[in-house]
Amino acid sequence: MAQAAHQSSPHLFEVDQSASGRFWTLADADEALVRRLAPSVGSSDLLARLLATRGVDPAQAASYLAPTLRDYFPDPSSFADMDKAAGIILDAILSKKRVTVFADYDVDGGTSSAILARYFRAWGQDLGLYVPDRLEEGYGPSPAAFRHLKDTGSDLVITVDCGGAAVDALNEAEAIGLPVVVIDHHLMSAVLPPSAALVNPNRLDDTSGCGHLAAAGVVFVFVAALNRLARERGLAPADGLPDIMPFLDLCALGTLCDMAPLHGVNRAFVRQGLTIMARDQNPGLRALADVAGIGKTETVYHATFMLGPRLNAGGRVGDPWIAAKLLATDDRQEAIELAERLHALNEERKEVESAILDLAMAQAEQALARNPDRGILIASGEGWHPGVIGIVAGRLKERYHLPSIVIGWGEGLGPVAKGSGRSVKGVNIGDAISMAAREGIILSGGGHAMAGGLSLDPDQVQAFDDWMVAHMAQFSAERTAALELAIDAVLAPGAASPALVDQIAQIGPFGIGSPEPVFALKSVHVTGVRQVGVNHLRFIAEDAGGRIECIAWRAADTPMGDVLRNGARVHIAGKLKADEWNGRRRVQLDVADVAAD
């Protein structure tokens, strides 16, 4: 049974153990800092506290609350090779060379390639497109892909969201005389592969301080560099230099879907990009919003959870070129056709994901039954599609609050198994996978703190599981710390209003590095619990002063669902969302966790 310890003051509220095994702590703001921040937010104590707990200094408050490109946009020349790359590409445009963009198959790659396609179009030039197949080619450029582009007439290639670590492919490009400009943002080694130019704020010799940018952000800076260089040379197409501001919707979308941290210029990209997105100037985004049932596309939720999965669906289970084509097209009819194909592929992706998730959860339950103290979950199966194993690993991590790896092989997927991992805060799964590769436990692999990928033979899975369980035993304290759920404030159900949601939105956008506020409802009564969709629960939380509608996603078959159904008083943690239905604006709580009173 979950336990809750709380005092009469809401500021002392905490939960020792919730339905999901987490503990809640109330954020502790520096009172002096709160008072200094209050004038920046109209003397709102709540907003001042939210800013204080997010580390915002009073001197930064104005630009944090209203981030602009004027305040945050970096000097393009501060990026290593940026000026060199701009010169190469502008010369190629002017000389009408055949240029092809080689894009990664995710949203960041698709938005990056679409920004470049639209920029080239403004100069009256077509930009070729190449997107690798996840199953047949894997991530990033290959020697074979560059040979194909050379043989089919490309004079120059721009890689976006990939290429920085493609040593073999870039060596091949140099050998066959194919110039390649790399625009990437992934971590790199000290040894640079050969290229015509390599723009990456995560180059070890880059001094821009912009390593937090997604590829779409780097590409947006790049087109600004192109415009600046053209202006310096006194050059422009007949209609004038391309207006790059309308590209901010694509920049924001790539930034959000790649989970880039929302600080510095990324906040300005997203804040202003969502404003552009709401104007429906991009036919592809409007068509995709229509098939997704979105009226006005203007929120982080719309971009990240409605558009993003559909754009990713082609790269996961179908044609990886569709998303990039959709985002670049100005043809309304083509946009509708492409959007409908992506929507259908997303439905297929959900079915594939659901089937694998059921099998993976069964394996996870069995593994925990055998060893409740194991510090990682590893599930595997023949025929498990590599396009969804990363999503399934994320679902396992969310459900069990443990680092999780999902592996698939066979049935047309090739003899080598592919795995994808997701981790909890404080446990670096990329390092663990890299170490396993160095010790010969798996064929190859790596990643970063929160995610990683690997290749191994199917008969290595058990040894890899044993090795990982032993390795993760040392991170018990980190896993425990990751169970903390930080509560920003205790809220009465009756105080949750559209006006409060609008007030909170003033400190957005929310995302990685800028967490959305989490509120706790203390000792409320739950009524009207009903299942909606496949396994979601909708219900009412109320106390003597008011009520609020709540939804708990994917909770029907979890301990959270059991607590909600038992009719007792509970504590609920979640995020406030505004929704409009039949012209009436209402507020609901998206539930993160519950605990019995």
Q: In words, what does this structure look like?
A:
Residues 328-365 form a coiled coil. One of its GO terms (biological process) is DNA repair. This protein is of the alpha/beta class. The protein folds into three domains: 12-27 and 488-596, OB fold (Dihydrolipoamide Acetyltransferase, E2P), CATH 2.40.50; 75-234 and 241-344, inorganic pyrophosphatase (n-terminal core); 371-480, Diaminopimelate Epimerase, Chain A, domain 1 (Roll), CATH 3.10.310. It has 21 helices and 20 strands. A five-stranded parallel β-sheet has the order 5-4-6-7-8, with helices on both faces. A five-stranded mixed β-sheet has the order 9-10-11-13-12. Helix 6 packs parallel to helix 14 and helix 10 packs across helix 13 (300-317). The longest helix is centred in the middle third of the chain and has 39 residues, at 332-370. The radius of gyration is 25 Å and the shape is globular. It starts with a strand and ends with a strand.
- CATH hierarchy class name of the largest domain: Alpha Beta
Largest sheet: 5 strands, parallel
Q: What is the oligomer described by this structure?
A: single chain
Approximately how much helix is present in the residues?
Answer: 40-55%
The gross shape turns out to be globular
Strand content: 15-25%
Say how many strands there are.
20
Mean pLDDT: 92
Distance between the first and last residues' Cα: 10 Å
Low-confidence stretches: 1-12
Number of discrete helical segments = 21
Structural class: alpha/beta
Query: What is the number of independent domains?
Result: 3
Radius of gyration: 25 Å
CATH topology of the largest domain: inorganic pyrophosphatase (n-terminal core)
Q: How do the strands of the widest beta sheet line up side by side?
A: 5-4-6-7-8
Query: Which CATH architecture of the largest domain would you pick?
Result: Alpha-Beta Complex
